[in-house]
Specification:
The complex is a heterodimer. In chain A, about 55% of the residues are buried. Chain A is globular and about 55 Å long. In chain A, helix 2 crosses helix 14, helix 3 crosses helix 4 and helix 5 crosses helix 6. The longest helix of chain A has 17 residues. Chain A is an alpha/beta fold. Chain A has a four-stranded parallel beta sheet with strand order 2-1-3-4, sandwiched between helices. In chain A, strands 6-5-7-8 form a four-stranded parallel beta sheet, sandwiched between helices. Chain A has 16 helices and eight strands. By secondary structure, chain B is mainly α. The radius of gyration of chain B is 20 Å and the shape is elongated. In chain B, about 35% of the residues are buried. The chains are: A alpha/beta, B mainly alpha. At the A-B interface, helix 1, helix 2, helix 3, helix 4 and helix 12 of A face helix 5, helix 6, helix 7, helix 8 and helix 9 of B.
Chain lengths: ~290, ~160
């Protein structure tokens, strides 16, 4: 059984624990074991990155060094962590001076960065370790093709390609194919690759909200009945923007994380996937399963 | 493919170009695809990445470094993907932010978030309530999140003295 260190980041554990739970449950079903990286620190995201590029690399450098110590690669499920860790790895692998500087900081804890640990996002594990065929095989109750879903990848999952190595940033389709393997129909919508607006939340909440809502309207314009995400931060933002404005509750579009959706089709129970914790009830999606064939 | 580089004449543009990441300022031909493609520009009238880069090119150093505009970029990198000259406005704005930090201009939102992360080791310690702990318990997840703040506090004293 392949095993990874799970680095859930700082946002999901508190704001979206169902993402963590469904990731663990779905990967377990597919033969991948996740264990926790204890005593980790936050990746610092754009805040630390903007104020001190070296401190930013140091934060992710420590996370990578922790994983190295226990000889495992790292699995991330957040776009920001995906970017921070891959960026730090790139810097530390290519900038000798910076590596010496960071390693002198890590030495105090008996840690060292050598570049041995890889960083992969959940989607990469599903694509490279598992594969579409095995995902298809794990489906016990496929969704009805009349269920129309839209994908939102999140900026730092695909951009920049040189670091992310996940999919074409201008036309990402990996997640779309995975969802089709579960039986549902995936629609393309205008501005699919645009940002959720989340990173602007601290600087201009009103504008952040409008960017998120634009996305919701674009999904609605093509008949999307649900939005599937692969970043905790985006997931929270796309659900949150649908409250507080003029949207009636029946007009809100459910937002689910990819492993939650997979888990439903894999027959994993709703409690394990934490579906009741989703801000917008995913009931229409749960009810779109085909009848079980005996 | 190597693109023709331009020689900006303002001292501010040259200052930016001399810092790693900022050299892309020499690739900009002011075509405006960055503004056309920008999610922030689509909802915030005062924010246009092309105009911001133009201000750098003509040397409006004070105006750029003492303004919130360079901090409105979400770093989504869509413009970087679409720039036909291969320039990264994101990298340019990162350099601008570093210079602004040196000059003592950091928007409160960035100051506060960075402080929280460095002191607590992570972003959301204050938000971790008993209710969420219960949710985690129900999901069979560890309730002890075990974030390390010793290291981030060391970074605070090494990299952020007098900054935040």
């Amino acid at each position: 059984m392949k095993e990874y260190f799970y680095y859930p980041g700082c946002t999901s554990p508190v704001r979206l624990p169902q993402y963590e739970a469904s990731t663990i449950a779905v990967l377990d079903k597919l033969g991948i074991k996740l264990s926790y990286l204890h005593n980790a620190n936050c990746c610092g995201a754009q805040y630390v990155e903007s104020l001190s590029p070296n401190a930013f690399v140091a934060m992710s450098g420590r996370i990578l060094a922790l994983a190295e110590k226990f000889e495992k690669d790292i699995c991330v499920t957040c776009g920001a962590c995906n970017h921070s860790l891959k960026h730090a790895k790139h810097e530390l692998d290519n900038n000798k001076e910076l590596r010496i500087e960071i390693n002198s900081l890590l030495k105090e804890e008996d840690l060292e960065y050598t570049g041995a640990a890889k960083v992969v996002h959940l989607i990469q594990i599903l694509r490279d370790d598992v594969g579409i065929e095995k995902i298809k095989d794990a489906v016990v109750r496929p969704f009805d093709p009349s269920l129309v879903l839209a994908t939102h990848y999140g900026c730092h999952l695909t951009r920049p390609w040189e670091l992310a190595q996940i999919d074409d940033p201008e036309n990402p389709m990996i997640m779309d194919h995975m969802i089709e393997a579960l039986g549902a129909t995936v629609v393309q919508y205008p501005e699919k690759t645009r940002c959720c607006g989340g990173p602007l939340l601290a600087m201009d909440p009103e504008a952040s909200n409008r960017i998120g809502l634009e996305k919701i309207e674009n999904v609605r314009s093509v008949g999307g009945q649900g939005i599937v995400t692969a970043c905790g931060f985006c997931d929270i933002q796309l659900a949150q923007v649908q409250f507080g404005g003029d949207l009636k509750s029946e007009d809100r579009i459910p937002v689910l994380q990819l492993p939650q959706l997979m888990g439903i089709a894999f027959g994993i129970d709703e409690e394990t996937l934490g579906l009741d914790l989703n801000k917008i009830s995913p009931e229409p999606i749960i009810n779109a399963l085909q009848e079980v064939k005996c | 493919m190597s693109k023709e580089l331009h020689s900006p004449t303002s001292s501010f543009a040259m200052e930016i170009a001399s810092i790693p990441g900022g050299e892309d300022i020499r690739k900009c031909i002011q075509c405006g695809i960055c503004s056309a493609t920008c999610s922030v520009a689509s909802v915030v009238d005062k924010y246009r990445p092309r105009k911001l880069i133009q201000k750098i090119l003509i040397g409006e150093r004070n105006e750029v470094l003492k303004d919130d505009l360079p901090w409105l970029c979400m770093m989504c990198r869509t413009c970087e993907d679409r720039c036909q000259e291969g320039a990264s406005p994101v990298d340019i704005f990162h350099v601008v932010r570093q210079l602004a930090v040196k000059e003592g201009y950091i928007p409160d939102a960035f100051k506060q978030a960075t402080k929280t992360v460095l002191l607590d080791g992570w972003m959301l310690e204050d938000a971790y309530s008993d209710f969420i702990e219960e949710d985690r318990e129900n999901l069979n997840l560890d309730t002890n999140l075990e974030w390390n703040e010793e290291f981030t506090r060391r970074l605070m004293s090494k990299y952020f003295k007098g900054v935040i």
